[in-house]
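Objective 1.3, modelling of assemblies. Example input:
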Amino acid sequence: MITAHIMPLTILLPLVGAYIILLFGSRHKILARNVALATAGVTFAMVCFITYLVSAHGTFVYHLGGWAPPLGIELMADNITAFLLVTFASVAFIVLLFASDVLPGEINPKVITRYYALYLVLLGSLLGIVLSNDFFNIYVFLEISSIAAAALVAVNGDKLAMEASVKYLIMSTLGSGTVLMGIAGLYMVTGYLNLDFIASNLSAAYAGYPLTVLMTLAMLVVGIAVKAALFPLHVWLPDAHGAAPTSSSAILSGLVVKVYIAVLLKLLYRVFPLDFIAALPLQASLLVMATLGIFVGSILAIRQKDIKKMLAYSTVAQIGYVFLGIGLFSEKAMIGAVLHVFNHAVMKSMLFLSAGLLIKYSGRREIADLAGLGRTYPLPMIAFSVGALSMVGIPSFSGFISKWYLGLGALEANQLLFLVVLLVSSLLNAFYYLPIVIAGFFKKGTVEVEKQVIPVGAQISLIFLIAATFFFGLFSNIPVSYIAPTIQGLFGMFGGV
Amino acid sequence: MPDAISRIPLVLVLLPLVGAFGVVGAARFGDRWRSRMANAITFATLIVALWQFYLVQQGTVLVYVLEGFVEFGLRWRVDFVGAIFSVVVAAVWFLATVFAREYMAHEHSQTRFFGFWTFTLGATLGVFVAGDLFSLFLFFEAMTFAAYVLVIHEEDRESLRAGNIYLYMSVAGGLALLAVIFLLQFVVGATGFQPALHLIIEQGINPWLVVIVLIGGFGVKAGMIPLHIWLPKAHPVAPAPASAVLSAIMIKTGAYGFLRMLFVVLSVPDGDPLFAFQQNFGYMFIWIGAITMFVGAIMGILNDSMKKVLAYSSISQMGYILFALGSGVMLGSRGAFGFAGAWMHMINHAFFKSFLFLLAGAVFLHTGELDLDKLGGLRKQMPFAMGFFLIAAASITGIPGFNGYVSKILIHEAILEAYHLLEWPSLLWLERIFVVTGGLTAAYISKIWIKAFFGKARNDWSHVKDLSTSHIRVFGTYTAIVVTIGVFAQRMVDRLVIPAASLMPFEQGDLAHVGHVPFWGSHELMSPIISYAIAVAVLLLLWKFGKHIVVPRWLSVEYLVYKQLYNGSLGIIRFLIHLRENWIPKNMLTGRRIWRRVDDAAQETKAQIRRWKPPKWEPPRWEPARWGSAIKPITKDDLLRKIEATRAREKERVQLWRTKEGEITKWIQRARRDWQEKEARFEDRIYDVVDGIPRKPQRPEEELSLDERLRRTLEGITRRKFNPYWTTKNLGFDTWIVAMVIALILFVFLLAR
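Predicted structure (tokens):
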């Protein structure tokens, strides 16, 4: 029974967990924490099971309530979807493990219960977006996730976070509105919301309403770009990610911006035929925006004095990498983009978590004040260094692998320029990440910091993330061999580009 | 030669890499165990390297592949070249480790030093036994980062600065190398050391691009001018054992990379249409080498710190190697001499340069000085050091019977061979540069020797002791190595150079020719005499005029190249910021006007200060004598009056200054007060720009419901005028921008249809 219904259960479980927490959690704080951890853990296990099923039996489809697609809701998991699912569930679990120990000192104790509930709602909606195979469902989960994410930014209720959160909410509403218009357009011309049905009816619809179909694609892409913070539309990201509590920043930067990329992948590779996309300036505009994003994000990150804002701007740059990989429309670049979704999720959550610990114990947020902390708090600083080196793209760290595929993809698409972009931006990454590492370990501190014990959960989660960065840097063929066949299939289907 | 699958190269690399953790672990049981552990691991590495060399000498090539590791497998492939150099690396490292125990005894964080020290050994060995460019790159980067910790060991301002320059240049170099790897992987499908020039051209990639990027990649490590600027900064600040291995071994990784890439990957057979290209870049390399060695030697002469001179000397000696490589590449299959010279010099320089650096370290250990102007007269206190220094000096300057001589003769032969085969007149000029540089080398080494050990003692050296027994053993070993290579020159060439050269695409006849260099011919024996004659002349000139020679700042490479690049890029960024700040339409900034006004006031004050000039001071005038009046002689009173008048005018001038100054100060104060008033008005909204923490102690927050707080926030955002201290900047403006961009993109899409 569980095997058959595993996909809706995976989405439902965190939502039910959130409900339980809200019901009983306000009385029993420990219960809230344990329920949240258990729910996230079980969700992770179920996601792993889905991954196993997909690798064993191929693509996995589920019809909700037994209603067949044009009427009913369809959930679908293929290899890429399963890979993204594992990314989301694992990182969310590890960040929650961190949060369960560190949050009580960081945010208002009254709202912790609410925080866990929101966190689980967010997790459920992320998994829902990835699994859904029809646009309406995707839209619903999209809205849930943006509201939950905005709430996670504002949860502490201080002025700065409130303002940032409102800004985030307004921007993402702008994006959702655009996406909704796009979905409505598609429904209007094809009469379906299911991705596969839209795909099969699209050419007929295009013959009838060419303008509407084009506008639809454009609206979907632009809406997603706003929510995923592609360069000129990124303005909300640094504020929101900089002002949020540590674990929120980690999950926002690591996962939430990525889920829209998952939608974009579905859109570009499952709905719209490749020759259709080639007729539009889509590739060019994605590439230009991604390149600008990489450079502007990096340069702005260099200018930042606040470590969390620096990390947030770095996310803007890294999102540029993912869009670059998607925009190159070549097999290797695509593998690089999907891998980078995972690798960046691990690296960035590790960076945010370790930075959060350093901020918590030193009481300072300025980069200059973090000098010498590596001696008092070696583990967070080592985690930060590993993340930094991985970001720069040093081989044997996971960041190198995605860069490697992106670079090969750029060559494969015969775009030598983007190889240069990759390499130069790696140097820029070095310019803003390495000084922190150097100062942390080798400079004398400006502030006296008392040594406190880091909670066990936080330590475990950091060690897990460090290990993952090394493991997927050294044994990269494990994820690559999982996603490569599907991507090759995608490109094979369209005759390759 | 048959390939044999063997785990020895893997063990050779992993032993120090894993052993580094062992060293750190052993430190728990005390310093003594830590140094024993470090010694044991480096010694075991040396043994493995020797064993590997023994196996390779039998005629096999050791190969090992870790499939699926880091994307597409790590490959080890040890042929004769790699095997010899692993032995050299392990030997120098072992000697330096033994030396380091006493040298580092009084330093801080020794455990960190020895841990990274051992780790760096593993990474460096990895570079030399790597089977393809990708594996080489992996170890190359590991070496860069591990060696960084050795460079900044002192953790003072100077070493951190030097470390930064080293690190960023190395990372940039690593990325250039990565670009080469990308191209090779794309073009060939693998990054092994195999000819790829034709494939590169077939793919439509300009080969010059590859060469330039390659120079960027390996040139930084090799200390090639103008990419050398990290070297004279980083090597002197590191502790002596570290600077010894940095200078002797680490910069060789660059030369080794060039050697593999130029002689194998980018080389073509003689008659090939692309041979002209190969000849051109070989010629370019000769010039780069010549410039590097000449400038390095000049800078060596002009510097006065012992380690700095040695660091510049390293640059100069790397110039020799590049020079030889260039002349080898240029001649294609006839270039055996160039290869032999470069190869032999790589080995020899590893020994004598670490010898010299360790000696400098020993002098520093006992005297606490590296500055040649403060040393002097040490011959009585440190006779052993003096003697060993003499041997090392004889080696680097190419005295027959010491190892430097062997490779210098080979390099000289190489350039002469190039001249004889091609008869380009410029090659003869290059040969002259080579000879002159040999003289300059002798000059700077003699300068160190004379200034440190002879002359008047400029400090009280009575407490100074000579080398300890363990150091004497280390230097004795060095002496033995240096002299053995020098004395058995012919046999060394037969055993070490010919088998290595036969791996490269050289003609058999030419190879045999290398085996018959008359090392003891009268013409060859003349060369050190010429060198020392030049050295004496240079030293005499230096003695006479040396105090007045200061290299102007604008001549340094930093100023000529890097500063301009930096300014240029900074200028672009400033321009972009300027655009951003001035392009925002005025009416969107309603609230900013107040701040504009304050800003304008401050600007005006500044402008006034800038505009105001002190009244012009005029020199006191003498009244001309009139016709008819008797010319009065100037009396003392006259003079006094004049002086009084001048003084009064001066006083007046100063007074004027003061009043004006007061006015300006008042102005500034007023502006500041205005500013503060305005700030106070926004008081409750002021956040420290970065902290997000209110500057004043926050009032206790009233207990408000979530709805109430949200309502207030929204109200604040909508009603509030712009305030620069508000961290969430321009909500309205940003929303506008995003909406406009969305509209623009949609519009573009529509148009594109």
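Chain B touches chain A through 58 residues (CB under 8 Å).
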